[in-house]
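Deliverable D4.2, example record:
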Amino acid sequence: MSKQLYLIAKFELDDADNFAPIFAKHAKDSRRKEGCLFFYLIRDREDPSKFATMECWDTYADFEAHVADEEHAAFFKQIKPLFRKDPVVTEADLVMGME
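Output generated by the structure prediction step:
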């Protein structure tokens, strides 16, 4: 069995208030995809232009299918022009859960 993939992606966006509902829809759509164990979208309290996603995919192949599909491509096409700087993405392994 493959290791689960945990991702944290941090974004800073221009026009964040108008884009937040689109971003939220992408998070909801992502949760429906095969292999998505969770997909959280969070927003910074002090600087609402900053967002982060916290995701877990059952396999790396599930994540690759997610970023290769039409929904993700359309979402990324919308969000890319709004990045203040390149997103910071961290791939991680779970050390300890919420036991």
